[in-house]
Input
Amino acid sequence: MSALPYFCKGEVVKGFGRGSKQLGIPTANFPEDVVDNLPSDICTGIYFGWGCVGNGVVHKMVMSIGWNPFYQNTKKSAETHIIHTFDEDFYGETLSVVIAGFIRPESNFTSVEALIAAIHSDIEEAERQLDLPEFRQLKARFFNNTDVNLPNGY
Ligand SMILES: Cc1cc2nc3c(=O)[nH]c(=O)nc-3n(C[C@H](O)[C@H](O)[C@H](O)COP(=O)(O)O)c2cc1C
Output
């Protein structure tokens, strides 16, 4: 995917609210214009990268882009789960993300439990990948973060 890494930002809008309630995995939804402006090269599926709310701390994130086949959404969405526990919702705040890599296509599942298990395994995959120097350096590059210790050459 030649469009990666891809940086975008937008105001966090309300989704269906199922992420927190049904899945226990809260997601921040981007507005329609951000979704519509994603490069065509970024196909639907599950991605990992870095994300930050307002001027806050930059965290690892996983992102789902598409129609959520399990819920059969009719509108394409881009939903970010920041791998961090926040005390409060952040609707209305600006979410900035850099999409770094692809994990898998969106799938349908026979149970909510299976969807939850898949998302947990995506989170583990994201945690692993983002520790690699190749992806750690994106945090510094896109968020001007100086506390990233990188080996020579990055
Ligand atoms: C890492 C990640 C992977 C996901 N994978 C799938 C998937 O394979 N199939 C699917 O239907 N939905 C998938 N979702 C989307 C969830 O179904 C969605 O976040 C949930 O329905 C909450 O949406 P809401 O905030 O609009 O309520 C994924 C979400 C995340 C964060």
Observations:
- The beta strands are 6-11, 28-29, 45-53, 59-66, 77-82, 94-104.
- The chain has one domain: 6-142.
- Residues 6-142 form a domain with the Elongation Factor Tu (Ef-tu); domain 3 fold (CATH 2.40.30.30).
- The mean pLDDT is 92.
